[in-house]
Design goal:
The radius of gyration is 22 Å and the shape is globular. Helix 2 packs antiparallel against helix 12. It is α/β, with parallel strands linked by helices. Helices cover 48% and strands 18% of the residues. It is built from 16 helices and twelve strands. The protein has two domains: 2-114 and 241-289, Periplasmic binding protein-like II (D-Maltodextrin-Binding Protein, domain 2), CATH 3.40.190; 116-239 and 295-327, Periplasmic binding protein-like II (D-Maltodextrin-Binding Protein, domain 2, 3-Layer(aba) Sandwich). It starts with a helix and ends in a 6-residue tail after the last helix. It has helices spanning 2-22, 35-53, 66-74, 87-95, 108-111, 152-167, 172-184, 193-201, 215-223, 247-253, 256-264, 269-277, 285-290, 303-307, 310-318, 323-327, and strands at residues 24-31, 57-64, 81-83, 114-123, 143-146, 189-190, 208-212, 228-231, 235-241, 243-245, 281-282, 299-301. The strands form two sheets. Strands 4, 5, 6, 7, 8, 9, 11 and 12 form an eight-stranded mixed sheet that branches.
Length: 333
């Protein structure tokens, strides 16, 4: 009787392990404010993958400041794919041998299926009358920004402010002075985009939050519509949201084909529409046209136009001892 029970138990364990292996799990390590988009995208991808291949798949998510996430992956977090908001975070992983050196050529549009831009969120009714970047350096205005050293959200905010001065004909010295004044109005540096939103709305810190356009939709869903006003500055930056397969992990897990399919599907019409509903600017012209009312026209400049590349901007502005360290003093003094 005992041996028979052991046999039955052994068969059950084998059956359970077979069922577990039948469902592959994929880990997407991503940036803070993309969590709601990927929650909806994952459901669409899982359904489409089952329909087209007959296979079950489970997608796990990890979200934090993009640079912190990149470091976690470099240090061993077993992501199958990374979906970031700055190319420097993926280049960091490429230099570490974690993703392919030519990752940007593996998918369309330099492996960036969506874009965004930086705008201002003020409290309901815009009590400080914020209209453009110049208003953010006025005395008595407190600005919440992500730390440029820990999140792409913060780097894009910094570069957008610098670029605003340059696009209006200013010199680098004038841009540095302007950005220095802006950061003197920053009471705290948030760790990531969601941390910045929490500081602004739950802890009631600051008069203005500089963040990605897509965060407006997330705030309306999480905190209720009407809590913030979205203010589009006259000039802002084009932010690309790059993606890559983590070669180190997929080679170990055998998930390379699935990881590629997961990122490929981001370019499908269904995924591009989901992105647009989350205020991420789609690459598809047809979808962009369909959601024209969501995406207000704003004069956008590219990183390449003013800074050469994000890697060059990283070296000049955000590496230790760079421009940001020279301009920013904790506490805004």
């Amino acid at each position: 009787m005992t041996s028979r029970i052991k046999t039955i138990l052994g068969a059950l364990v084998l059956a359970a392990s077979g069922a577990a292996s039948a469902q592959t799990t994929l880990l997407n390590v991503s940036y803070d404010v993309a969590r709601e988009f990927y929650k909806d995208y994952n459901a669409a991808f899982v359904a489409n993958y089952k329909k087209t291949t007959g296979k079950e798949v489970k997608i796990d998510q990890s979200h934090a400041g993009s640079s912190a996430q990149a470091r976690a992956v470099a240090d061993g977090l077993e992501a199958d794919v990374v979906t970031m908001n700055t190319t420097t975070d993926i280049e960091f992983l490429a230099n570490a041998g974690v993703v392919a050196k030519d990752w940007a050529k593996r998918f369309p549009y330099n492996a960036a299926p969506t874009t965004s831009t930086m705008l201002f969120l003020t409290r309901n009714g815009n009590p400080k009358g914020i209209k453009d970047w110049d208003d953010l350096i006025k005395p008595g205005v407190q600005v919440v920004i992500v730390n440029p050293k820990t999140g792409g959200n913060g780097r894009y905010a910094y570069l957008a402010a610098w670029g605003y001065v340059k696009k209006k004909g200013g010199t680098d010295a004038q841009a540095a002075e302007f950005v220095g004044k802006l950061f003197r109005n920053v009471p705290i540096l948030a760790r990531g985009g969601r941390d910045a939103t929490t500081a602004f709305l739950q802890r009631n810190i600051g008069d203005v939050l500089i963040t990605f356009e897509s965060e407006v939709v997330s705030i309306d869903r999480e905190f209720g519509a009407g809590k913030v006003d979205a203010v589009y500055p006259s000039i802002s930056i084009l932010a690309e949201n790059p993606v890559a397969v983590v070669e180190r992990t997929v080679a170990k897990k055998g998930t390379g084909e699935l990881a590629k399919a997961y990122l490929d599907y981001l370019y499908s019409d269904e995924a591009q529409e989901i992105a647009a509903k989350h205020a991420l600017r789609p690459r598809s012209e047809a979808v962009l046209k369909k959601f024209a009312s969501t995406f207000k026209p704003v004069q956008l400049f590219t990183v390449q136009e003013l800074f050469g590349s994000l890697s060059e901007a990283q070296k000049v502005h955000f590496n230790d001892g760079g421009q940001f360290d020279k301009l920013y003093t904790p506490g805004g003094k």
